[in-house]
Amino acid sequence: MNQAFLSLKTLHTFGAEAFGREIHFIRSEDDLQVFFGMDPTSYYILGGGSNILPVQTIDRVILRNEIKGREIIHEDEESVTVRIAGGEDWDEFVQWALDQGWSGMENLSLIPGTVGAAPVQNIGAYGVELKDFFIRLEGVLLTEGKAMVLNKEACRFGYRDSVFKQELSGNFFITRVQLRLNKKFKPQLSYGNIAERLKEKNITHPDARAVSGVVREIRRSKLPDVGVLGSAGSFFKNPVVDIDTYERILVLTPEVPHYPAKEGYVKIPAGWLIEQCGWKGRRIGAVGCYEKQALVIVNYGNASGSEILAFAGMIIEDVKSKFSITMTPEVNVWR
Asked: N or C: which end of the chain has fewer CB within 10 A?
């Protein structure tokens, strides 16, 4: 199963050719024991591969999370708490929960990746984030071989951020996640054009399944099919800027869209900034900025990870030059 320098092309959604020294498929917590105490710079943890960009031969051990399982651990009249294994596909889990009549995650439909990767990024879409219904998670600190349970506070969730991208970056293997879902539907329709799409369908009293369906339609209309065009979805975070920066941009470009963030800050859509710099639909060689969504960088077939990274760097420089805002990638670069 494991041999030197295996192709990683089919294990990540960008589809750029890269190679790994060893790939271990982790199907239970026991499979991790052999890696206890290992130097964290000697391995990478892999979920669904939807948020990584390998740029060269990876001379590390790759630990792919394939732990499976779902269970109900608490239930009352208003909510249900579920415990999901880290190797479960995120969207399959969302759809399964909707089938049970549980809501809260419908705005996060069709986000690629695994359940174990979701807390790392604090995934979010259309005004909802994982932290909104997160309770705790279980995992193993590989450097110490120590099983740990972390609650929401310990995870230190931020905008596309968590402790797993900070102090615990790269050496904490998430095995199980506990989430509290609602039995009584409370729609979140204020972000994006969900409400508009529902109105077009004459759906005046949507349920969670209807919202999920609309979210899926919107995402498919904006994002490429990774089976046709390799990508990692949104390549950049939406910048959060202070009010002074926003007002300076507003003077130059009065139509700048924005959304509320923490007090004294606003969030500006990264796709809008990129489009203003003329990158939407632009292509250089085998790499391009998707024609339907400027936030998405795509691989037209044979681009290398280095070429994709260089393309992203040009976008960052242009946005910084025009708006004095430094874009931050969401995608994790593997070197």
From this structure: N
